[in-house]
Input
Amino acid sequence: MLQRSDFPSVKRYPLEILQVNLGYLCNQTCQHCHVNAGPRRKELMDEATIDALIMLLERDTIHTVDLTGGAPEMNPLFRRLVTAARALDKKVIDRCNLTILSEPGHEGLADFLADNQVEIVASLPCYLEENVDGQRGKGVYRRSIDGLLELNRKGYGQADSGLLINLVYNPTGPYLPPSQPQLEADYKQQLQDKYGIKFNQLFTITNMPIARFGSMLVSQGKFDEYMSLLKDSMNLANLDGVMCRNQVSVDWQGYVYDCDFNQMLNLNLNHPQRGDRLHVSDLVHTDLAALDVIVADHCYGCTAGQGSSCGGALD
Output
């Protein structure tokens, strides 16, 4: 439904960011999740692949490792990878669902993240309890608020602490996110007034018509309507800032893709000499600059309206 596409061609820049999926195991099952993560998933990155990642991080051009899942912290090797990346002076981002902080077996996680100056990107799809619980499950909102308060106590979001925590908004239905600056102001006022919570930035991210969210659109008969919305809202100016230009997505087995969404669609990064099954261990001696990105119709989600990337709106 997505691969026949007239989306414009995109060429890669030099590699700067590794986004690493440590596995699909998660303590939550969210409606908008594009990786179909959940408590019953068994896929987890192994030690050999972690070793290959650490070797790759020695490349000077790579400045950031962005850890995701599932809940990346549920991989037993999460802390080892974070420690190794920080020892190489790389920026580490943890895409945290906040409720993991209160899961049994993860005691001390907030301290570990703060001690290693890990930047947190935390999903909170709304500042209203009913909307969050409707999308992510009953009780998730309250546990998320408790997680934010704990992180604030550790210094996250506090002035001059150097500990950054950014929140992520995903629409709860088949529509585009609102203005990021305005929504960020609303979040900050609501969370400060109700709970005294502080955070640095809000990232608005468009829901992709793939995996669990795509299946929901199909079952509701809204897939074509949503795709039309994405295409009609395309902004060509966003093409220069799409995340696939300077980062790659690494799956739990170590295979490399242009982005996290291509990973879920099994659209492997294609190298003219090495083929379309590139492993992270191959990247140590492989230049990706000027290669064509594999595009399909879901790419319209990154360019629609104000644009969307793992770092929020593009314009």
Notes: The mean pLDDT is 91. Residues 34 and 110 are 26 Å apart (CA to CA). The domain at 17-222+243-288 is CATH 3.20.20.70 (TIM Barrel).
